[in-house]
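Co-fold these.
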Amino acid sequence: MHDPVMLLDTVLTFMIVLAAACFVVWRIFLPVRLKTVLRHRLSGRREPCAPQAEAAGCTVGCNGCALGSIHKQQQHDRRA
Amino acid sequence: MNIAVSNVKPLQLALVGNPNCGKTAMFNALTGSRQKVANYPGVTVERKEGVFVTPAGRHVVAIDLPGTYSLRGRSPDEVVTRDAILGRLEGDPRPDLLVCVADATNLKIMLRLVIELSSAGIPMLLALNMMDIAQYRGIRIDAEGLSAELGIPVISTVAVNPDGTGSLVREIDRLASSGLASNAPNWHALDAGEVRNAHHLADALVARFVSKPANDRDWTHRFDNVLLNPVGGIVILLAVLFLIFQAVFSWAVLPMEWIASGFDWLAATVAAVLPSGLLSSLITDGVIAGVGSVLVFLPQIMILFFFIILLEDFGYMARAAFLMDRIVGGAGLHGRSFIPLLSSFACAIPGIMATRVIENRRQRLATIMVAPLMTCSARIPVYTLIISAFIPNRQVWGFVNLQGLVMFSLYAAGIVSAFAVAFVFRTFVWRGKTEPFIMELPGYKRPLLRSVVLGVVQRAVIFLKRAGTIILSMMILIWFLSTFPAPPEGAADPAINYSFAGIIGHALLPLLSPIGFNWQIAVALIPGLAAREVAVGALATVYAISGDASGSTLSSTLATQWSLATALSLLAWYVFAPQCASTLGVVRRETNSWRWPVAMFVYMMVLAYFASLIVYQVAVALGG
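Predicted complex below.
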């Protein structure tokens, strides 16, 4: 391990593995809300407010509010 | 060209119209966007926004809304349209101008909507889209007369032509400079009498301002006489699908070999340049073997989507929905379920989102729950790998490629299982009457080469992006798990047996050995939960590190390492297994509950396990 080439080889390899692990955690395991907060804080911007109920609409694309979900009420409306 | 850009508030413009009248094509033409368009209703289920600058320098925010026949908002996508027009979306201003996009070959239904939209209190203009087709068919529209009668400008457009929206943009400029004043909306849900009156008024407008030739040059009815025949139509549909899968296998052989050779060369070059060590192993065994084994399937994915987009643009897919209605209805699903299920062939995520067109809650839930059973493009690498390893590439009955036939059977298995599961759900969980399916069949259109090529390239880019991001990262982690910890001194077994991957794989073996899976498959199934095709790369990396690949292709390695029973069992697993975390996330979002993604994961996992168990045990009993 005293060989500088081998040391560089090992350091580079583990840096690549660490970067891949961070990317997988970011893409798969972190919830969207937390990612939005982190992204805004890292870029020095104020984080947006939390998604609201369906009243918020889909102004910036779907952010997981209840608008796109299935409402039991629809069934009653239809029958009425 | 100098453009004076104004600093005034951007004009909010909403594109509204019936389904499949070309709103998204118009949106793409105006904003330079590349949103998905297809020749069937229900493609757009979300509000989309883009910006463009008019020749006069006016900034315009264009909003593409899902298609609707009225403002009643019977399904979630129609609610979005109604609320956007009436300004009921919080933080989303009411549009300054409505561009009512009409299919010029079928004006009546749009005129009914225009009459209803007039109560929204927003200035409007009517764009007669697809005027080129209308003119070809000899349909004449008195635009000036219609404009005078409706009291709004009427413009002819051809959204798919490069200069087909010029007159529309100029009219938007003219209206904006003359001042657009909105009134308070006075819309209310129309009662039956008001709906009838609106229909009569639309009929009268069409009678006065639209003339059709005695001999229509439209071939739609002639084609439909053949393609919608209850027996002949089904036979043609099956034949079309069958030929597609034959082509997927036959045409892709050469480009797949080129890609595989390219990666072999790259691996050899890297191994020669880098000193032997961890980094060299990571790049050759992890990145190149793993990502390369997935990328090799790019030609097959492109060929499959070429045909799907071609059929969509031609207008055949809507006919397929019509032909399948009896089967779909028999399974307890709404006829509108066909389009979401069709979208799921590309990926279950847009398919699940497309269920917003289904107004009935139970039928929508049932469609969401079975959409992942349709064979998505992520399964293609897995299926192709196993088929090419275990199914001989020969002709049967003189003209049928056996590998293509097996692929076709796997797709058919996905479709049949989706309908069977839907039937079970609708019989035991969400009981209720199946509603009749009413869909306006689009006219046949000559597919535009540009649109088809663009669609195929978009799918290829999506696949390459996945390969370069999540699949690449997963392969690096699989390499790490397969390499560390190093074996103890004097260890006799292969080094990978002492690694984290080996330990995990062997721990799962008791659970998976009844279905014929070895520990390498067990290791591949875990990252495969993120995306199905990752399993292929994971297998390539595990076999490369263990030294079993010995320079041969992954396909030939598997042919020597696995039994036929194991291969068939894995195919059965992938027909059912819920191996996609993103899909489960979207189900949670669309149902606003964790209950349904959990239920989906459990039922699909149970189905996958028992299907694999039966297939494996039967194959072993038959000597496989």
